[in-house]
Structure formats: C-alpha cells, structure tokens
Amino acid sequence: MTTRSEACLASLRSFFSRDPRILEWGIAPARPTPNAALLRAWVADKHNAGMEYMAARLNERMDPKSFHPWAESAVVFAFPYGHPLGSASDRYKVAAYARSRDYHQAARAILRDAEAHLLTQDGLGSIRFYGFADTAPVFERDLASEAGLGWRGKNCCTLNRKHGSAFHLSGFFLDVALPASTPLEDFCGGCTRCLDQCPTDAFMAPGKLDANKCISYWTIEDKGPLPDDLTDRFGGWIFGCDVCQEVCPWNHKHIKAKEPPPERDVAADCPFPDSGTAWGELLRKGGGFQSRFKRSPLTRAGRRSLLRNLAVAARNLRDTSAAEPLRLALAEETDAAVRKEIEKTLALLSEPAAKGESASG
Q: What gap in Å lies between CA 296 and CA 258, rounded to an integer?
C-alpha cells in the first residue's frame, strides 16, 4: 500500500519533471539552519545594515517550525533569471535579475501550480502547504544547500555546477516527512575572484558579506543618504550589482551565451532607457517611471532612489548628457539625499575636465 510520503514524493517528481520553468529542485528537512550561529553574529555585528527586517524575525528565519510547527519538509526549486548575466551593454547598469518582470510573480505562478497538482492527487487532498518566494522569514539559500540545489559560494550566492548562480530560489513547506536530497560538494576551491573584484570590498571573508559596503544594498534597499566614501566605486550601477556573479567561473558559460533562458516571458519585459538623458527624463516627476516599470523589480527602489543612483552613476561615468535632465529634476525634488547627489554631479559635470572626458568617451 502506498504511504502518504510515497504518494507525495511521486507527485512532486511528476510535477517537476514536466515543468520547463524549473532548473533544479530538491528536498530539505524543515529544521533549524546549520548556519544559525553565523547568522546571529552577522546581525549582532550590524552587517545587515539598514535591513531591520532581517533581524526582526531572525528566530523564525532560522527555524521553520517556529512559525509553522506542522512543517516536516521543505521543497526548494530554482528558476532562471529573465535575462542572462552580462547580457546588458548599457553604461547605466541594472542587475540581470531585474531586467524582466518581478520574479515574485513567476514564483507565485509555479507555487500555485505545484499546490494544485498535489491537492488533486489521491490521498493528498488534506496536505498542508505553505509557499515562500523571498517574502517570508525563510532562509532560502540555506534550505537550497540542504536540498542539494547548490553550495554556498564565497560571494554568498547559491552556486550550481550546471547553472552557475543566475537563478531565483523559491519553495514550499509540507506537513509530510520526505527523504532529503543529498547536499552538493563545495566546488569553489581556491578561487577568490568574487572577493577580490568586488568594487567596494564588501566581503569580509569567504561567505561573509558586509551589507554596509554592498552596492546592491545601497542602490536597492536604502532610500536615504549614500556613503560619500563608497559612491565613487559604484561605477554605472543604478540598481543592484552583478560583479561578484559575473567574475565567477561557474557563470562564464552563461555570460558567453548571451541568450535568454527558455520560456522567457518576452511580453513582460520592460524597455530600458539607452542613455543618461533618457534615464533622467524617465525618472523626473511625471516622467512615466511607474507606468513603465509597474511589473519590474525596479519599483522596490522607487523613482526617487533611482534618480539619486542615476546622479551617482552619471558622475562616475562623467556623462555630461545627463546634466540637463538632472538639472530639471533638481528644481522639482525636495528629498535631501536626492538633491545632494544631483548637486554633486552637476558641479562635477560642469568642470572642463569632465566635459572633455565625456566627449572623448
């Protein structure tokens, strides 16, 4: 007679084997993370920067049973970025994962389909299911490691020998005890490219990131004043940063391919501005940012923060073409952090040396 566990496992295999959206999937026990001490120290030392939500529900993040006592197993899956790493040649850079629709939408669609599939199977109609997609107090990366999807790279990303790290993680808890997948071996070896080439030296050690120095944190999460001692190292990044992934040898074949992954939702892609002038016009009040990017991860940062980031990038790139839209934006903006960066940029771009560099570039 088929047990509930066997029926659930067979159903999961049938679902994931025929879903082209999924790169990998695996099963982890719903238990406290092995990295609890590391995570507590990370928060205690304030390396989470202004991400207070990381500390607010830390106990729940470290132990799934603290908020879902019924959970027995975690099913974790990986699905690809909408655009490959290194696919954009723009001077003003947006992280690859954000160059298509919000990945939460794709994750929720898969979760809905997975739950529906399980509930229609004989003997599984009463199964308890809770999905997560980077929106609940869950450490997806730790669960992914235990589920055999990859290993924790020195850049803190989940790495997979076949898929690199250009994928999102999502999953769900079940009230069924399932056999756990076998964790993968760490294949980083002696490589330290991600640590050595981080523009802001944000890595304190392998696997230890100080968000206070991370470009992605400042350009996405933080909405206030930017640190003066770091902004000149932000380069052209206005949303996120992919450097530690782009230099990783496990991602090189994906970067060279320069092709979108299969099943990409082309219709959901957002057209990106192709110049500092176009970005500046888009990010002005009433410039159309909200309507153009309403389904994009860029809304997490918001128009004002992106305008602030644009000013920094234009300064770093010595892009005088962005000066006029920034000047017009300055006359409209009241946010002190935004005004500060625009004023610094306009002052620099008005210098003869900056004009010469822009003309020659």
A: 21
pLDDT digits (tens, 9 = 90+) for 179-199: 999 999 999 999 999 999 999
- The secondary structure of 125-157 as a DSSP string is TT--EEEESSSSS--HHHHHHHTTS-EE-TTSS
What is the model's pTM? 0.92
Q: Which of 45, 113, 134, 232 is catalytic?
A: 134
The answer to whether 23 and 80 have CB atoms below 8 angstroms apart is yes
In a domain, 16, yes or no: yes
Judgement on whether residues 160 and 197 belong to the same structural domain of the protein:
no
Task: Tell me what the mean pLDDT of segment 142-154 comes to.
Answer: 97
Domains of the chain: total: 2
Terminal-residue alpha carbon distance, the chain: 72
Query: Over the stretch 37-52, which tens digit does the pLDDT of each residue have?
Result: 899 999 999 999 999 9
Distance CA 245, CA 154 (A): 10
- What domain range is 45 assigned to? 4-81+102-174
Active-site residue, 134 included = yes
Q: Are residues 270 and 207 in the same domain?
A: yes
Question: Do 139 and 216 belong together in one domain?
Answer: no
Burial of 13 (0-12, 13-18, 19+ CB in 10 A): exposed
